[in-house]
Amino acid sequence: MKSKSLVVIFGLALSVAGGAATSPAFADTGFNATIAGQPNYSPLVNLAQSSTLKVDVVNLPANVGLYVLNCKVPDNPRSAPTLCDSSTAALAYLPADAAPKASVSIPIRVNAEFLGTNPNPSTVATPIGPVDCRVNTGNPRSTTCAVYVLGAGRESANPAYMRVYPTVFSPVSPNRASDAATVVVSDKVVKLKDQMQLKLDVVSPMKVSMKSGLVPNLTADNCAVTNSTIKALKDSGTCNVTISTTGGKNFRPTVTTRVFRLTR
Questions:
Q1: Is the pLDDT of residue 41 over 70?
Q2: Is the pTM of this model over 0.85?
Q3: How many C-beta atoms lie closer than 10 Å to residue 117's C-beta?
Q4: What's the CA gap between 177 and 106, in Å, rounded?
Q5: What are phi and psi of 189, to 5 degrees?
Q6: What is the dotted CATH code of the domain comprising 181-263?
Q7: What digits encode the pLDDT tens for the residues 146-157?
Q8: What number does CATH give the domain 3-169?
Q9: Do domains 3-169 and 181-263 have the same CATH topology?
Q10: What is the mean pLDDT of the chain?
Q11: What is the pLDDT of residues 225-264, one digit of tens each?
Q12: Which of 29, 110, 234, 247 is deepest in the core (most CB within 10 A)?
């Protein structure tokens, strides 16, 4: 899935919902979506730290796809969210099909805490930051985070496919332990202040494990990373690997980095 699609979704669908843009009329197709059995704008309550929820869709017309994302609600609810969860299984996509679907279900992992990234591409630096969905907004009618269901592609501006589900998470202990990452590349432990050398286009074995046992989410610039390998994409400069977890019952969320020096 390319981020280019998401900017269309957020930029158009949410502006339509907020009344900031005019959209043509769309015929009622009978489409509906629920999450964990809850209808549009109903809160998802008593959620665990990480909950896998089922998104049930009915009467999805032909050639219509959907995105499902867990995001921090922006200060202006009518504007596009800029901090969304991109960790494993936290962003769901239902591709369009040439045939209509009477019913279909897709899972999404909804995390109480995550490293928020901007799904909207931009020529300027995009925000990245920790999000805690348990933070009290001070308004009993609003929540810090919500799950968004939005149309994809040409249906991104169609409010008929937009659904919003506020999230409410169960409390956790304030005394959770700090997590720590162990990074091993080519059988060598890479510590926080190290700058191991990586050669252009050479695939090296890499293993990242957490003290908590949680599965980390890996992102990088200037190199390609998987759950088991790393490869430099440039022959100079540095590669920054960001390692994050969404936390758990006994461990707080963690964000740490490792820096690699790139050579020919």
A1: yes
A2: no
A3: 22
A4: 33
A5: -75, 130
A6: 2.60.40
A7: 999 999 988 877
A8: 2.60.40.230
A9: yes
A10: 87
A11: 998 999 999 999 999 999 999 998 899 999 999 999 999 9
A12: 110
Taking the C-alpha atoms of residue 116 and residue 148, their distance in angstroms, rounded to an integer, is 15
Contacts of 199 (CB under 8 A, 6+ apart): 232, 235, 262, 263, 264
Quote the tokens at residue 174.
């304030």
DSSP letter string over 52-88?
EEEEEEEEEPTT--EEEEEEEPPSSTTSPP--EE-ST
What pLDDT, in 10s, does the model give residues 87-137?
Answer: 989 999 999 999 999 999 999 999 999 999 888 766 555 667 899 999 999
Reading the block at residue 184, the tokens are 């091993």
Beta bridge partners of 111: 50
Residue 208 burial class via C-beta count within 10 angstroms: exposed 0-12, middle 13-18, buried 19 and up: buried
Helix (H) or strand (E) segment spanning residue 113: strand 113-117
- The residue ranges of every structural domain in the chain are 3-169, 181-263
d(CA 223, CA 220): 6
H helices within the chain, ranges in order?
A: 3-8, 15-17
Give pLDDT tens digits for 141-199. Answer: 899 999 999 999 888 778 999 999 999 999 998 899 999 999 999 999 999 999 999 99
One-character DSSP codes across 18-31: TTSS----------
Find where tokens 């890479």 sit. 190
CA separation for the pair 220, 34 (Å, rounded): 34
Residue with tokens 């190290």: 194
For 11, the 3-state DSSP assignment is: helix
